[in-house]
Specification:
Blueprint lengths: L15 H42 L6 H8 L3 H7 L3 H21 L6 H12 L2 H15 L4 H23 L8 H18 L6 H19 L1
Helix pairs in contact: 1-2, 1-4, 1-6, 2-3, 4-6, 4-7, 5-8, 5-9, 6-7, 7-8, 8-9
């Protein structure tokens, strides 16, 4: 009697309805991803436009409509991402803070003199100019002041932390913390001086002297 061979059961074919559901899910995901990408891109354009408007026109000249037009989006789209003017510009300064921190973290550590110069560059560029405009507005806008105060306190702590790391400062040494904070205060002051006139030549000499002081202060 010959051996009986049994074939292994074949896998059941997916039903037409299951195949259709899987295809629809894939198509839905494909549509959803570009939509998210477009939303992120719109938000990014609005933040960049808000920063540019603040730096160029100040708080008074920077309305949601002006920013939306500069970003190339409708006012409705702008308000979808940022329901109020305060939301938009607080978001813009938070974006500025993130950009400043990212620029600091990306600095190659080549020596304290280079770090000092890079810190000053951050405070004399357009990002700081935009943040300054919001500070001025916050001093006169009760709704804006607590949000900007809290944000700037956080930015200040982060900037100080990154500066300590880049400078290799040992804050357990007497005077080290004050040396780093003095450097940041000096950089902020140079940023203010640069608002009205091009202070490049004088600033270069001041920065060189501060690099020497920082080296001596941190050991």
């Amino acid at each position: 009697m010959g051996a009986v061979t049994s074939s292994s059961p074949s896998s059941p074919s997916p039903s037409p309805s299951a195949s259709a559901s899987a295809s629809a899910a894939k198509a839905g995901h494909a549509r959803h991803a570009p939509k998210q990408d477009r939303s992120r891109a719109t938000r990014q354009r609005l933040l960049e436009a808000a920063v540019a408007c603040l730096a160029e026109h100040g708080w008074a000249g920077s309305t949601v409509s002006v920013v939306a037009e500069r970003a190339g989006v409708s006012r409705g789209a702008a308000q979808h991402h940022f329901p109020t003017r305060e939301d938009l510009f607080t978001g813009a300064v938070e974006y500025v803070a993130e950009e400043r921190s990212a620029a600091l973290r990306a600095l190659p550590v080549q020596g304290r003199a280079e770090v000092v110069a890079a810190l000053v560059d951050l405070y004399t560029g357009p990002l700081f100019r935009a943040a300054l405009q919001l500070w001025v507005a916050a001093s006169n806008e009760p709704q804006l002041r607590p949000r900007v105060t809290e944000l700037e306190a956080r930015v200040g702590r982060e900037t100080h932390r990154i500066a300590v790391e880049l400078l290799g400062a040992d804050e357990s040494r007497p005077g080290a913390r004050e040396t780093v904070q003095g450097l940041l205060d000096m950089a902020r002051g140079l940023g203010l001086a640069n608002l009205l006139t091009d202070d490049t030549a004088r600033r270069a000499r001041v920065v060189a002297q501060w690099a020497t002081l920082v080296e001596e202060g941190l050991g």
